[in-house]
Design goal:
alpha/beta, 5 strands
Length: 140
């Protein structure tokens, strides 16, 4: 679904500009454990090494389970490099963009239309028994 990819990119850029983005499997897991109510949306990204990395697969399974238990929308993308390009600052080179977490703003008084579209997309996917739908990120 192309529009879901566009919405995901917009939501990531918005969260990044508002400093509501957490990048990294361990960093995201820490926030989810410490303050699960602050987590709004989770993106898991696979790359060519994913099939060989059993530890990463286990982390993904645990993160997915946590998201389901805490009603956090979650999607997969197959292009970790593209995800890293979107969420990294120009000076950063992200090694662990396998998991990206969007958190809610501290004041709670905000609406992100892109994120709303993504939550609806995830809800619809769950109705079709697609629990972790895959989204393609748009190119540059």
């Amino acid at each position: 679904m192309q529009s879901a990819g566009k919405s995901l990119k917009e939501a990531l850029l918005c969260a990044h500009s508002e400093d509501r983005l957490t990048v990294g499997v361990y960093e995201s897991a820490k926030i989810m454990t410490d303050d699960p109510d602050s987590a709004s949306f989770c993106v898991l990204a696979v790359d060519e090494d994913f099939e060989c990395d059993i530890a990463l697969q286990i982390h993904f399974t645990l993160i997915q389970s946590f998201c389901f238990d805490n009603d956090i929308s979650i999607v997969r993308v197959s292009d970790m490099q593209r995800l890293a390009e979107i969420v990294a600052d120009k000076s950063e080179h992200l090694e662990d963009a396998h998991c990206v977490l969007i958190t809610n703003p501290a004041d709670g008084a905000w609406e992100d239309p892109s994120l709303e579209k993504l939550h609806l997309f995830c809800e619809e996917s769950r109705r079709l028994n697609d629990w972790v739908p895959e989204i393609s990120l748009p190119g540059r």
